Amino acid sequence: MSLTLENISRTVDGVNYVRDANLTFEAGSFNVLLGRTLAGKTSMMRLMAGLDRPTQGRLIYKGEDVTGKSVQSRNISMIYQQFINYPTLTVYENIASPLRLAKMAKSEIDRRVKETASMLRIEPLLKRYPLELSGGQQQRTAMARALVKDATLVLFDEPLVNLDYKLREELRAELRDLFRERQCIAVYATTEANEALALGGTTTILHEGGVVQTGPVMDVYRAPVNTLAAQLFSEPPMNMIRGRVTDTEVTFDEYSHHALTQELEKLTPGDYWFGIRPSHIALVPANDDDLEMSMEVALSEISGSETFMHVENSHFEMVMQLMGVHQYHTGAPVKVYLPINKLFVFDNDEQLVHTPSRISGGAV
Amino acid sequence: MAEIQLKALAHSYSDTPTGPDDYAIRQLDHVWHKGGAYALLGPSGCGKSTMLNIISGLIQPSEGDVLFDGKRVNELSPRDRNIAQVFQFPVVYDSMTVYENLAFPLKNNKVSASRIKARVREIAEVLEIEDKLYKKAKNLTADEKQKVSMGRGLVREDVSAILFDEPLTVIDPQLKWKLRRKLKQIHEQFDITMVYVTHDQLEASTFADKIAVMYGGQIVQFGTPTELFEAPNHTFVGYFIGSPGMNIVEVERCSGGVCFDSTVLPLEPWQVAILTRMQSNNLKIGIRPEFIEISPIPSDDTFEAQVLDVEDLGTYKNVTVQLGEQELKVRQNEEFEANISSRIHLSFPKQWLMLYVDEFLVQEQQ
Q1: More exposed terminus of chain B, fewer Cβ within 10 Å: N or C?
Q2: How far apart are CA B10 and CA B8, in angstroms?
């Protein structure tokens, strides 16, 4: 059982909401759609649900063309950003409502409602009304209603956006565990790279309606196909520095010169983008051939356990994510070190040409 | 710019409050100093928005006083308090240009035309929207609109304080970084009292010099991000700050320290001394996932535990381990590898073991 989008596009008044998407979602899989606002995440889910018709392409569900079919004829659940509950019904009746609609036996309804409620830890709240609950409890009620009917396709449209981050952290972990044992297709839209990483499964990066990259979450994270994927799938965004490789050295914006060592030797002369994650830049060298750069501190943001240090020179700027507290004044000169085995390299067309070897930097 | 003092302040939405549960804010005293960058952090329903609305004048507190530079302002409107506010959703006039939007608060205050021109330019430059000045606001992106919203707060030179209510909620993560950095630079440049309400610990700690953590209508800790991280005053702060939050374990008194299951944790002598003086049996130990050390081989001060789960979050890994009956989270760097159900050895550096009695941190008397 799978759901396939075949050359799907949707255009409204000349605006491309989804362009030529080819994706397959398997039963029992958890799929994250990652992209900025207006990247096409919601549009794509509405097409999957049958709420909108594609302008082009076909939607294949369980081997059958369902392109024009309405949502009612298929077993689909959708969970939205704004949690929607029936205010006049108790939590119990809210969860039971889709089963009552399906005319299920009373005893079976009772069993399922209680099972789902206990899974989402809202069993003690079954007799209460939605408006007496906190935001997190209301969203859990909405989720329980979506999950109770054993839908074969469950669509989550940024369901945790309106909750505080601690609750988000907890619900994410619950969701991940919940879907491990289910045989349905789960699709989850988010703007946050960290959420995609925490949820795991398959990640599809969307941008301006198109699919940039899709694959197992860690594969996409470790080998983003282009600079766009690299920056969308990194928080803070991956640092990108322009560099020119000659036969003997690499120059960054004619600013600093470095001998070509290790993996960089393989690069043919030309212009490249060098990408490095904020957590991989250090204030002390780990290896002799780390790229040393003289920078100036633009701002140091301390989160308590970490410091996000923004550094710049006259040619480019970078963000560093450092463990611990590092207090620097704006304008202070610093030397920073980029380990060669952590560098991503993209060609002039911004396509990935080299992935870091992930050799451990020594410190474990 | 002003110092904002809250004196014996409490607020209830009920006309006849009967107990502490009827209060959105329970009685507290607090001072926001002149020129400080502050955050008000807490989960939904903790009272932070009520607090912000009391400072701005949208709500009159049911008890206590709000003082601006020592002067009672309880009855003054936000406008008379000279408070500028930036909300979750941008407040701009779509039909006006960016320039007109920024000039609007000054025109209202009858500032001279030449001064308006200079000031609007200055603010537009700081916010990097000079090239948008003659665009209609309706043609801007969400983050540009939010910049204009902030600009409208910054443009007046006579403001007492700027209050931000979750200003980055509608902004994409990639742009949040830029806007937060901008705000911080603005604070450094203009030296204005700023209070920033958020439920996001990262936003709070990167923006503010000091954070007030609210829980159940009270400020449970007011401190620097580092203080909140290293020595949470209350178990709630331990849980709420940090990702994952602090490990908090119920313990009992044991000779030389505390214990849970068959694990004995020795404590510092001063902690033991305080512990013997206290009556309560509500004892907890807190340790941050970042501070638990994992070693492949045992030693005198390690405890054997089992790996339950390793969660790869890209830049780091969250390891869930079981020690006795207790599940603990340990944060490791991205190179950490361990098989599920393998045995590892944990150690708990003494300086990071926080002792909580009745949910409050036991601190060394100076």
Answers
A1: C
A2: 7
What pLDDT score does A342 carry? Answer: 92
Closest residue to A304, CB basis, from B174, B184, B241 = B241
pLDDT in tens, A87-108: 999 999 999 999 999 899 999 9
Q: Interface pTM (ipTM) of the complex?
A: 0.83
- Decide if B85 contacts B197 (C-beta within 8 A): no
Condensed to tens digits (0 to 9), the pLDDT of residues B17-27 reads 888 888 999 99
Same-domain pairing of B93 and B197 = yes
List of domains in chain A: 2-227 (3.40.50.300), 239-354 (2.40.50.140)
Question: Which residues fall within 8 angstroms of residue A115, CB to CB, at 6 or more apart?
Answer: none
B121 shares its domain with B189: yes
Q: Is residue B366 part of a domain?
A: no
What percent of chain A is modeled with pLDDT above 70? 97
Judge if B258 and B231 occupy the same domain: no
The residue range of the domain holding B336 is: 245-361
Say if the Cβ atoms of B205 and A301 lie within 8 Å. yes
Interface of B with A (CB under 8 A): 43-45, 142, 172-174, 177, 180-181, 184-185, 188, 199-202, 205-207, 224-226, 228-230, 239-245, 288, 290, 311-316, 333-336
Q: What is the pLDDT of residue A364?
A: 29
CB B312 to CB A321 under 8 A?
no
Query: Cβ contacts (< 8 Å) between B224 and chain A: which residues?
Result: 302
Number of domains in chain B: 2
pTM of the predicted structure, to 2 decimals? 0.87
Task: Flag whether pLDDT at A360 surpasses 50.
Answer: no
- pLDDT > 90: percent of chain B: 69
Phi-psi region of A13 (alpha: psi -120 to 50; beta: other; left: phi over 0): left
CA distance B177 to B109: 33
Helix (H) or strand (E) holding A107: helix A106-119
Q: Which amino acid is at B214?
A: M
**Cis link prior to A236 (omega < 30° from 0)?**
yes
- The 10s digit of each residue's pLDDT in B324-364 is 999 999 999 998 999 999 999 999 999 999 999 999 999 98
Question: Has residue B275 got a pLDDT over 70?
Answer: yes
**Chain A residues touching chain B at CB-CB below 8 Å:** 36-37, 134-136, 163-167, 169, 191-194, 197-198, 218, 221, 231-232, 234-237, 277, 279, 298-299, 301-305, 308, 310, 319, 321, 325, 330, 360-361, 363-364
